[in-house]
Amino acid sequence: MSSFVIFLLTLLSIFPFRQCHGRLFTFEMHHRFSETVKKWSLQKLAAPLQNWPVKGSLQYYTQLANHDRLLHGRRLFKFDGPLTFSDGNSTFRISSLGFLHYTTVTLGTPGLKFLVALDTGSDLFWVPCECGRCASTDDPTLYSSDIELSIYSLNGSSTSKKVTCSDSLCTDRNNCLSSNNHCPYSVSYVSSETSTSGILVDDILHLRTDDSEEKKFVQARVIFGCGQEQTGSFLDVAAPNGLFGLGLEKVSVPSILSQEGFMADSFSMCFGSDGAGRISFGDKGSFDQEETPFNINPLHPTYNISVDQIRVGTTVVDSGFTALFDTGTSFTYIADLSYTKLSESFHSQVRDKRRPPDPRIPFEYCYDMSPDENTSLIPSLSLTMSGGGQLAVNDPIIVISTQNQLMYCLAIVKSDALNIIGQNFMTGYRFVFDREKIILGWKKFDCYDIEKIDHFPSQPVNTTHVPPAFAVVPGNDNAERSHERTTTTRQSSFASSVYQTCYLNLINCFLASLILLLL
């Protein structure tokens, strides 16, 4: 018997215990019009805010629509009008800034804080650095004293290293004279002729584990852009302190952290109704979440999904399309014919009087709301994704307060070309971008209760399993986010080691239990 126990112990030494999904790092994030950011600005200015829109007002939704138009250009509109960062995982909205959600990251030694915009539609992480042309970071009329804006300096960090042209993540080798040169980068975005350029740098990103009672600080080396020259909306405070790309390419921080073994190749974003939320790196979701596969374009992978069916109230609209799932877009945009079928079905079930078009807002289907209006009479809206996953939209309408009365609008915009599932369809959910399984997961969630996050491997609620598609449908549905990168990176990173470690854990648990029974 003792020899058998020794044999089992030997097996355990061969198959060491490892976590399935590594550590969880979580950051807070805030919307640009959240109450938290409003308080920051009030503290700074010590005076009433002049241009802060009241939530639910016409100005509020006009500003968000203008944000989308600047971000994606004219292709949207028919009209011309869990690891976490060391400072936490909050995200927030800032009125004067161009992107929707921001968080604070710490770089270098000693650590320097940067307020970065979060962007699932691009890959590179960059910060202003040794600026030749950057946005102002010290204008008291734009930023509160609580908002820390920094400029990165290669000489100011003892752990910084310039990336050479021989590095595998250097994609702009055509501009290198030799392999020992410093690697240049240049990223262009379609929106407002916006771009950033500089050199790639290797330095420490300060993280903190968020999956245990004892928080541990982690120093992870990442590659990011030393942004020396910015153009377009980056000079007009769109992302004055940097941009945190969350895309699928190898140069993105999620890809680097996964490749280096810090976490599983997955992250989640949770969107609260008040503009606050969380982003958690290494989060694989929960066993009871809904799921749908991403449509992966091998040349330029993006978070593109397929919608098979739409339910509006009691009517099923059989009109499928593919769409970019974009956390950085305020509203949802759908091209014809799907838009017409959906909106006409909604209109046929509404009892209220339709209002004439208003050139200040992009919504076509708006209605008067009587004081005794019961919102339960407004048709519900849900999407059936590829694979059968159901996304019930919590807020298919927006309520706009005018001087005389209330009105509400179907919060979907008719698009010229792009189909985009925007953030207004994401409120009240935690969305998991699982880049290992190549799926999008979602579940209704309280974004402020991090203890509810389940770190077990996820199994979808929908029983129809559809393998990930690797060719996006051509035509309008083959819509890439308009501020896509124009660099030449063409390889995506999808790790598979996580499944091997899970099986090893099962073996270990079985062997350990058997030893205890025998002793």
From TrEMBL:
Family matches, as InterPro entries:
Aspartic_peptidase_A1, Aspartic_peptidase_AS, PEPTIDASE_A1, Peptidase_aspartic_dom_sf, TAXi_C, TAXi_N
User: Which parts pass through the membrane?
Assistant: none
Q: Which controlled-vocabulary keywords does the entry list?
A: Aspartyl protease, Hydrolase, Protease, Signal
Q: Which residues form the signal peptide?
A: 1-22
- Domain named Peptidase A1: residues: 101-443
Task: Look up the domain of life of the source.
Answer: Eukaryota
Q: Which SUPFAM superfamilies match?
A: Acid proteases (SSF50630)
Q: Which family does it belong to?
A: Belongs to the peptidase A1 family.
| Protein name per Swiss-Prot or TrEMBL | Aspartyl protease family protein 1-like isoform X1
Species this chain originates from: Solanum pennellii (Tomato)
**Gene coding for it:** LOC107008947
